[in-house]
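Feature request disguised as a bug report, sorry. It would help if multi-protein outputs had a clear separator. Right now it looks like this:
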Amino acid sequence: MKRKIIYISLFVFLVSCMTKNNIRNDSYKGVILKVYNDVSNHNIYSFSINTNKYIFIEVAEFFPNSWEYAEIGDSIIKEKGELYITIKKKNGDNKIFYFEE
């Protein structure tokens, strides 16, 4: 039993590290097309983002409360190497949301 708990803990730790590294390596600048609760993905909040090159989905729940602040048409920026996003409103206001596991 103790061995099983160790393996599970190690697995959770490795997945957490991989997610953090993936977030750190992401880089995009785009416009939020949709803010929604993704029922097909365990009811997590997500953004649909248009970067002019492609449209993709970002898990908003990695950045707590960002989905409450964001609106359709807001700009969203994620710089490579950083663990936060910046959401800029049309009126010039902006807010930073930090990654949280």
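(second protein starts here, but nothing in the output says so)
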Amino acid sequence: MNLAAFQSALADVVAGRDGDAQWPDLSTAELERLEDVAAQPGMRAIRMLYQSWRLTKILTLLPMTVASLGDQTAAALLRKFWLQRPALGPYFVEECIAFLDFLEGEGVTADGALADVVVFERARLELHSDITAGAASASRAVVLDHDPVDLLAAVARKNLDAASPSTEPIAVLGEVTEIGHELWTITSGDRSGTVLDLGERR
């Protein structure tokens, strides 16, 4: 028995990625064992728990992206993402960055306000990663094509069409302070100096 190959195939079964063709290194007996596992009454519940665990990661750290996509579109894209790649361990940030990479690869973020939302939330993830790695404070700079104030308001209303395109790119500097607050300061354009307090960064 190729234990590593069998364990990998078992993980595929739990994730719902069944199919003998993708496991050429397994013996007939191993394939039959996997079929038995997949047919167990509790497998449906295990798969639901697995997907709920992965969904929790996305909803926790990418709320703006999910809201901007809309429930149905987000659900369809997440199902496709989960089938294409396994969970990246217990790490929330890595899973969420992989999902953003997937969206870009699918062409979902080619243009428009959604592209800015993804750029912004990627920067937020990077801030989060720095803090969880032990940094006392962290900062990131991004450039957006939409007014950040209007963009955040449009996301909150789940209506990206309400976001105002800017006549020129707008620079925004984000930081997580020593007391744990996430602040974004607009550093160019008419709203330069405006501070967006996104609250405590968990």
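Even a blank line would do. Unrelated, but nice: The chain has two domains: 3-40, 45-200.
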